[in-house]
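Dear colleagues,

For the upcoming journal club I promised to circulate an example of a predicted protein-ligand complex. I picked one with guanosine-5'-diphosphate because it came up in last month's discussion. The inputs are reproduced below in full, followed by the predicted structure.
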Amino acid sequence: MLPVVALVGRPNVGKSTLFNRLTRTRDALVADYPGLTRDRQYGQAEVEGQPFIVIDTGGIVGNEEGIDALMAEQSLMAIEEADAVLFLVDARAGLTSADQSIADYLRKQSKKVFLVANKIDGIDADSAVAEFYHLGLGDTVHQIAAAHNRGVTQLLNLALSPHIDGMVLSDDESDEHDDEFDTVVDLEEGEEFDDSEETAQDDKIKLAIIGKPNVGKSTLTNRILGEERVVVFDMPGTTRDSVYIPMERGDREYTLIDTAGIRRRKNVTDAVEKFSVIKTLQAIEDANVVLLIIDARDGITDQDLSLLGYVLESGRSLVLVVNKWDGLDTAVKDRVKSELDRRLGFIDFARLHFISALHGTGVGHLFESVEEAFDSATRRTSTAMLTKIMDMAVFDHQPPMVNGRRIKLKYAHAGGYNPPIIVIHGNQVNSLPQSYKRYLMNYFRKALKIMGTPIKVEFRSTN
Ligand code: GDP
Ligand code: GDP
């Protein structure tokens, strides 16, 4: 499970600046889809090879009303679900009463809290941060300048280290762990463990069922489980954990990642599962294939688009599912279809299914697309084959001239799977226009019959 880091602090201390810095590499992934903007609140991030989820909680101050109160509630939930909390204060503005009330709240939580003074660039940081020790959140005020990327990597290494407790750090311990190398070794040990787990279940399809509340996730899960042979086991979990259900279908083994938590719904007192973006993000990261469920009765909502954005950011395989397709008249169906075209037309790689989880219509066919996507995402293709396809693409449509010379593509090889990455080597490839890159990507997709997964084509210049 990916660790979760929550950014907390009053408005204007630099939370979104830090958030953007941590999640910047994801911009490029989403940039491939002009119909989408990256969500600026929840993001997948990475520091020195360690992936994690970061949440910008917005400004909780403690006296919110109306819509702000609703957002504050989500923020409090995010803090509850986080492994580490970075409490940002503004080293330039000094200590405020809003900082005080947030500190009061955090002190009551049993969370790893790191007190972080931001904007230390160009000021006498040590004297500026002195007053923040009065917040009573431990002996360390971590100093950063998010806008200039100062202290950020070091801070995140600390926050993500399982052996460091944030606010209970004593001076001695902090000295010991200032040694960055120590922390890095810890992380690598953790990663190795993850890897071995991955290879052990390599041929199992991990299928995540995601969607906003009430789209029919649990109805669909129940429908699937009702029709297939299921080996159910109970797993202990916290509120942010999905339920993992092993199952077989035909000759294939699956693990359903059930974000609606149907196992727990048997408990009457806990009848409605709280929707959690973190839970959804974790499920996407952990899956091979994602079923994104959309409610035909609501059309495409902003929340659907934001969940879709997370899937695209992750590079996971995707099958789009419009549920509740029963009992709709033709006019409504037509409206939904044209809305799908308009708002999701830019997703050219995912199959689209119209189903009724309630009646079971179309549910079986989902698995054809799931298996196709999984096979597309994991199939191995040789260098010879990829180079041949590249040559065919060039033969059909030459790359343009740059500075009087034609761009030359030399050979192609696989750079990774799930999603498939194709690496093309050649001369001046950095000058290839976007339109030609897109042409190549689509050519590979067609030639290899890849469906259900995004493809990445990367270029390496040989001169
Ligand atoms: P948020 O409301 O907590 O999300 O704060 P923002 O990220 O929007 O930042 C508020 C302001 O502080 C912006 O004008 C940023 O450019 C500025 N800011 C953020 N980080 C730094 C920093 O490290 N140094 C300086 N000097 N300004 C910063
Ligand atoms: P979840 O929150 O995403 O797990 O959604 P549920 O599975 O709990 O479903 C929410 C509501 O939608 C319930 O009242 C379901 O009976 C209803 N529902 C789910 N699937 C369908 C469907 O295919 N057709 C119709 N008409 N209703 C459905």
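Two points we might discuss: The chain is about 40% helix and 20% strand. The radius of gyration is 24 Å.

See you all on Thursday,
B. R.
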